[in-house]
Amino acid sequence: MTLIENTAVRHSQATRTMVLWCPDWPVRALAQFEGIPVEERIALVEHGVVFACSASARAEGVRRGQRIREAQAACVDLMAFDYDPALDYRSFEPVALAVEELMPGVQLLRPGMCALAARGPARYYGGERAAAGVLLTALVGLGVEDARITVADGRFAAEQLARMPGETGIRIVEAGGSPQFLADHPIEAVGDSNLSMLLRRLGLTTLGSFAALDFRDVRARFGETGVYAHTLASGRDVRRVVPRLPPQLRDIEVAFEPPLDRVDQITFAFRTAAERFVDELTSALLVCTSIRVELHTDNGLVHDRGWGHPRWFSANDVLDRIRWQVQGRTGAGAGALTSAISRVRVLPEGLDSIGNYETGLWGSTPDDRIHHGLSRVQSLLGHGAVMTAVIAGGRGVVERQVMIPWGDPRGGAGDEHPWPGSIPLPAPSTVFEKPRAVTVQGHDGGPVDVTDRGSLTCVPALFAVSDAGAGVGRVAGAGGMGGGAAHGGGAGGGLAAVERQQPIAAWAGPWPVYERWWDQAVARSFHRFQVVDASGTAWLLALHEHGWWAEARYD
Questions:
Q1: CA distance 528 to 449
Q2: Mind listing the pLDDT tens digit for each residue in 324-348?
Q3: Are 316 and 371 in contact (CB under 8 A)?
Q4: What ranges do the domains of the chain cover?
Q5: Angle in degrees, CA 264, 268, 271, rounded to 5
Q6: What CATH number is given for 252-358 in this structure?
Q7: Following DSSP, what letter does each residue of 68-107 receive, concatenated?
Q8: Cβ neighbours for 466, distance < 8 A, ≥ 6 positions apart
Q9: DSSP code at position 362
Q10: What mean pLDDT comes out for the span 161-181?
Q11: Quick check: helix, strand or coil at residue 292?
Q12: Quick check: helix, strand or coil at residue 193?
């Protein structure tokens, strides 16, 4: 017999479970956040379909899972918002905390619904209905007046009881009555769309008809998935309520009296707390990979910033981040400190198991030594003294190279977003920090240009690279194209020093680039080409304002 069968045999009676459900909680959370009445016609959209909608929207024909255009066609004044799951969890947390103060052992099923074992509250408050009444009164005090509290044998039956249409309030199925209560529910209630579709085709349209089958036949035909669904349909839900464990607060805070205005004083006063912070994490077999430092000033302002680490934070690393943040806030800039610091708080934002960062069998690796050396340079010269390159988003090759301080998180550079018109793969291996001036000419030695209609004035035939190096500076909005004295063999331009011209073996283009046309200060418009010279070297070229420039080379 399988584990599910053994459990079902041992527990002929499922555990009495109490379920709290607040209907349309995502809509309620959004309405409270946006400051609009919950009675409005509201729909939350996720991936182009309706995730949740208000009661007034449902009255107009809007349904969950409906495409947003169909929903807007059914309800012309529908207010559509993007679904934010984080908002749901944040808004439901006060409700969960209020329930835990009255009845410990709460399991959060989803925002708007939680479960707890009914035996303890029933014995304490004098019955299941009395315990549900106490809970309902507390929710009304929080402004949740349409909550439903149900009690049944097992979590599955209690959830189905809560979702039945009708008035809000308290609903209870007597002990042992869950199989009879579930018998008339449609087979789709099992939650598995493929299984429910197959069962309906076989003529099993209700949970009762499915529960009447022998579980051995169900196992032979539908496997373990069918046995589990059969257990739920039979009213023998053996799932236990698993109380959530509140996360332990591991942030550290040090107050200064009187407030301090010197960096060395602040870091010295915080050293003991930083060491205790790291020791507590080590005792819990955890390491911290990112922190947030809050600087509270004497005049009530708060300066906060997140800090990452390529490996994990030690006590000295925490002190270095505090020192760098204080140093970055001193001076006369817009974010400068206007008074002394009265309190410093460090919050761990990223925690990981210490087992993922254990030292190797033969000691530290070369990466460890490199990191310690670079961190030492940072501690002496400042946070921005050591930079590392990351790939960011963009259409050009130069703008995709971003330098960030060593230890900062590498994510969030925008590389995951689509960039229409970007340089296709394979990417060039050599990217010039400043574009190099080149000449591109036709067979007759005349300059090659692009007309306003996007056509070439002549076929590119000759190519040469200036040995004077990079272009002179950058022109704002020109996408890094060189400017000034040097021009690249365009219409009327010449080069002071040019290598011997080579025939062009192959070329492709032009590809027009029009970016940020709405902002004249940074707008740019040019054409890109790819050429292969006689030696077989491929180049990425740009034609900007009748001048030719080499952005990169395919080595």
A1: 12
A2: 888 876 655 555 667 888 999 998 8
A3: no
A4: 252-358, 430-554
A5: 140
A6: 3.30.1490.100
A7: HHHHHHH-TT-EEEE--HHHHHHHHHHHHHHHHHHS---E
A8: 436, 437, 438, 439, 486, 488, 495, 496, 497, 498, 499
A9: T
A10: 87
A11: strand
A12: helix
